[in-house]
Design goal:
With about 240 residues, the chain is of the alpha/beta class. The chain has a single domain (about 5-235), classed as Rossmann fold (3-Layer(aba) Sandwich). The chain is built from ten helices and ten strands. It has helices at about 45-50, 75-80, 95-105, 110-125, 125-130, 140-155, 170-185, 200-205, 220-225, 230-235; strands at about 5-15, 20-30, 35-40, 60-65, 65-70, 80-85, 160-165, 190-195, 205-210, 215-220. The protein has a six-stranded mixed sheet, with helices on both faces. A four-stranded antiparallel sheet has the order 2-1-4-5, covered by helices on one side. The protein is globular and about 45 Å long. The protein starts with a strand and ends with a helix. The structure holds adenosine-5'-triphosphate. Adenosine-5'-triphosphate binds near residues 18, 42 and 45. GO terms for molecular function: ATP binding; ATP hydrolysis activity; branched-chain amino acid transmembrane transporter activity. InterPro entries: AAA+_ATPase, ABC_branched_ATPase_LivF/BraG, ABC_transporter-like_ATP-bd, ABC_transporter-like_CS, BCAA_Transport_ATP-bd_LivF, P-loop_NTPase. Pfam families: ABC_tran (PF00005).
């Protein structure tokens, strides 16, 4: 499809002899919020790592904004507007909130624009503004998740990959994070969301993919997946 911002074709990834991703095809269109759900160890994180050049690809192609990006490193991808918020957040614990946000803008040199975007991030996450000069390592898990998302927004991404943003968070914080994901999506950022919280992820998304043992086993509108008896039995605890 012509409006695909990301096309993954025949993607295979292995760790030594273990095939973690076994030849998958999927795409994300401009402006969409797409959820990739699946159990522990299904290969979701590996898929995101392959897209962002953090894990070598055994076979297949990754096309972002019309160009093959296989083998490109994270730095080049961020410059092209493809950002990832990794599982476990990966904030710089010994830097302040403000410094972490500046790190997110390391590919930019428009100082005024960067300052304006910091204010925009503070608008989305007022908690970060209150704690602007606090060391990131002293913040709660939820606050660190907010910071990781804020940092990713600082590179003005066109496509944002989110890996398990709700993991380990309190129910209130999970609500807040999903609310913000919806907001970011409404602001026009295309999102690929990897989640074990299948219900919430599908409620938010337009389309979804189900991953099992390295393969994509189902796809469709998020609503259809939410009501599919197989999805309900395997991933929604029914
Ligand atoms: P989770 O939600 O638990 O992160 P996932 O769907 O993201 O699961 P992956 O982390 O991509 O799954 O793992 C897919 C498979 O690859 C698993 O069998 C896992 O054990 C294996 N794997 C992941 N990382 C490595 C690694 N660095 N070395 C060897 N095997 C790995």
């Amino acid at each position: 499809m012509s409006d695909a911002i990301l096309q993954v074709k025949g993607l295979k990834v292995a760790y030594g002899g273990i095939q973690a991703v076994k030849g998958i095809d999927f795409e994300v269109h401009q402006g969409e919020l797409v959820s990739l759900i699946g159990a522990n160890g299904a290969g979701k994180t590996t898929t995101l790592k392959a897209i962002t050049g953090m894990q070598p690809v055994t076979d297949g192609s990754i096309i972002y904004a019309g160009k093959a990006v296989n083998g490109k490193g994270s730095y080049d991808l961020v410059r092209l507007g493809l950002a990832m918020v990794p599982e476990g957040r990966g904030v710089f614990t010994r830097m302040t909130i403000h410094e972490n946000l500046l790190m997110g803008a390391y590919v930019r040199n428009d100082k005024k624009g960067v300052e304006a975007d910091i204010e925009r991030v503070f608008g989305i996450f007022p908690r970060l503004k209150e704690r602007r000069d606090q060391l990131a390592g002293t913040m709660s898990g939820g606050e660190q998740q907010m910071l990781a998302m804020g940092r990713a927004l600082m590179c003005q991404p066109k496509l944002l990959l989110l890996d398990e943003p709700s993991m380990g968070l309190s129910p209130i914080m999970v609500d807040k994070i999903f609310e913000v994901i919806a907001d970011i999506s409404k602001q026009g950022v295309t999102i690929l969301l990897v989640e074990q919280n299948a219900k919430r992820a599908l409620e938010l998304a337009r389309r979804g993919y189900v991953m099992d043992s390295g393969a994509l086993t189902m796809t469709g509108s998020a609503d259809a997946l939410l009501h599919d008896p197989r999805v309900r039995a395997a991933y929604l605890g029914e």
